[in-house]
Design goal:
The complex is a heterodimer of chains A (249) and B (253).
Chain A (H helix, E strand, L loop, with lengths): L1 H28 L7 H12 L2 H33 L1 H14 L8 H8 L3 H25 L3 H9 L4 H36 L7 H10 L3 H29 L6
Chain B lengths: L3 E12 L2 E13 L4 E5 L6 H9 L6 E6 L2 E2 L7 E4 L11 H11 L4 H14 L15 H13 L5 E5 L7 H18 L2 E5 L3 H7 L2 E5 L6 E6 L12 H17 L4
Parallel strand pairs in B: 3-8, 3-9, 6-7, 7-8
Antiparallel strand pairs in B: 1-2, 1-4, 4-5, 9-10
Helix pairs in contact in B: 2-3, 2-4, 4-5, 6-7
The chains are: A mainly alpha (249), B alpha/beta (253).
């Protein structure tokens, strides 16, 4: 509980410092393009009672589904490739060839094939963060010392139990690290995907406010995006505290 | 009939630079309940011998018999304690100790009862919710011992289990092991690089030559088994005999 209080306190002090810096910057710049935090906060609070909430929830849904989907595809594959050398020899070249391609170039094709709804956004995000999680998981699985495997096998573990008791838990801290990095990527990609051919989501909301030169609304949208990132990070933190308790003592 | 028998066992690994012979025609016979220590220069195949006994590494030639049956893979009644990676840092003391039982699909009640009994025996019950990183080295090895003993093994294999401990903790654990052994009539194989440990815990001491590991001598050590053996003159006689053998094996004696 004391921990929670400290976290909340650190959030509050960070926010206060940011608002101060923001206030200072807007006083120096003196431009409508950088409104003062107070006016943004009041428009944010008002907007969240109205249409901004809808866009927030849609974006949140897209990010959450993308992350869950990527994890459930990339983690099992990464674990297996990291442990089974023969499979890895076959698939590694494929990963190395496709990983560096900036997947964002497929956005037009994806839009064409999958339409302008949720599916195309989710596909694009999954396509990108899948690789980040896959590569990290694979490398973590490769680094497990042979003796750890011998140790659990000597207890009579079959391959399923080797994965359950050793390979998966050993890689979990690295998987969480990959996830934290991927969340940032996911939100950035989402913004891009939502700024084309759509009328839903925070990306659309921000771009739309911008074209209407409504800066308080635009910054309200940006605030909502920051809030979304913080919510996902905190959820990951909570999961990691629960499932990787052994890494913090 | 001996409980453990090795007939001309050789193990060859495929390494990067071709094949490496780790163990060369090792033959031995151990009676049930006997305590064996395996010693030799580093890289002599001590650990390989242990993995072969555990059924984790198959002999390239020769064969191993345990309890009258030819060893063809892992065996339920064999437990092994490894040097550093034996415990899993992501499992608590209790989860680590219970793992073998869980993997072998014992019922929930049986896992709880057996694990609890052993944790009490080894004075670990108060620490059951701790992670290995929160324990001292000596306690960690007691957990590893607990995990092996939950399975009621008849053959206990240990790969330098005490080598990372300070001298006093080490002696305490050696005493622990001696007591456990005597209570259960376990057959044990202990790999060590410490001459004193080999003499304290090995009724028979297998001395291996440097790579490929061959048997230099099997030293009989009839005085082994008393808690105060370390203070007796015979103990030091066997120690100096071993030291002599190891020097000769290293080619500088």
């Amino acid at each position: 509980m004391a921990m929670d209080k400290r976290r909340i306190l650190s959030y509050l002090s960070t926010i206060a410092a940011m608002l101060l810096a923001w206030q200072g910057a807007s006083m120096v710049v003196r431009s409508a393009a950088l409104p003062a935090p107070l006016s943004v906060m009041s428009s944010f609070a008002e907007l969240m009672r109205g249409e901004l909430l809808k866009h927030f929830l849609i974006s949140f849904y897209r990010v959450a589904v993308s992350i869950i989907l990527s994890v459930s595809l990339a983690v099992p594959l990464g674990l297996v490739l990291g442990r089974e050398e023969k499979l890895d020899r076959f698939f590694a070249p494929f990963i190395f060839l496709t990983y560096p391609i900036p997947k964002i170039v497929f956005l037009p094709v994806i839009l064409l094939l999958l339409g302008i709804g949720n599916l195309s956004k989710i596909t694009l995000i999954v396509l990108i963060i899948f690789f980040q999680i896959l590569v990290t998981t694979r490398d973590a699985a490769r680094a497990i010392p042979a003796q750890s495997i011998l140790s659990v096998r000597s207890l009579g573990a079959g391959w399923r139990q080797v994965y359950r008791h050793v390979v998966f838990p050993a890689c979990l801290p690295d998987i969480f690290t990959a996830l934290r990095i991927s969340v940032g990527t996911a939100i950035a990609v989402l913004f891009l995907a939502e700024s084309y051919a759509t009328e839903e989501g925070l990306g659309y909301f921000i771009m739309d406010a911008w074209t209407r030169i409504n800066y308080p609304e635009m910054f309200g949208g940006i605030t909502a995006m920051a809030l979304m990132g913080a919510v996902v990070y905190e959820a990951l933190e909570a999961l990691e505290r629960r499932f990787c308790a052994w890494t913090r003592n | 009939m001996p409980f453990v028998r090795l007939d001309e066992v050789s193990v060859t690994y495929k390494g990067h630079g071709g094949e490496v012979e780790a163990l060369s025609s090792v033959s031995l016979a151990a009676e049930k309940g006997e305590a064996w220590a395996v010693i030799g220069p580093s890289g002599c195949g001590k650990s390989t011998l242990l993995y072969a006994l555990a059924g984790l590494v198959p002999p390239t030639t020769g064969s191993i018999f345990i309890g009258g049956e030819r060893l063809l893979g892992e065996r339920r009644e064999t437990s092994i304690i490894l040097q550093d990676y034996g415990l899993f840092p992501w499992k608590t003391v209790y989860e680590n100790a219970a793992l073998g039982l869980k993997i072998r699909h014992y019922s929930r009640e049986e896992v709880a009862r057996k694990t609890r009994d052993i944790l009490i025996d080894l004075r670990l019950l108060d620490f059951k919710n701790r992670f290995p990183s929160q324990l001292s080295g000596g306690m960690r090895q007691r957990v590893a011992l607990a995990r092996s003993l939950t399975l009621d093994p008849d053959l206990l294999l240990m790969d330098e289990p005490f080598s990372s401990l300070d001298a006093l903790t080490r002696e305490e654990l050696q005493n622990n092991l001696l007591e456990v052994r005597q209570a259960d009539g376990l057959t044990t194989f202990l790999v060590t690089h410490s001459i004193e440990e080999a003499v304290f815990l090995g009724r028979k001491i297998l001395v291996l030559t440097s790579r490929p590991g061959k048997i230099a001598e099997i030293v009989d050590n009839p005085g082994m088994g008393a808690l105060d053996y370390r203070n007796r003159p015979e103990f030091h006689e066997v120690c100096s005999h071993l030291r002599h053998l190891l020097r000769k094996g290293n080619g500088d004696g």
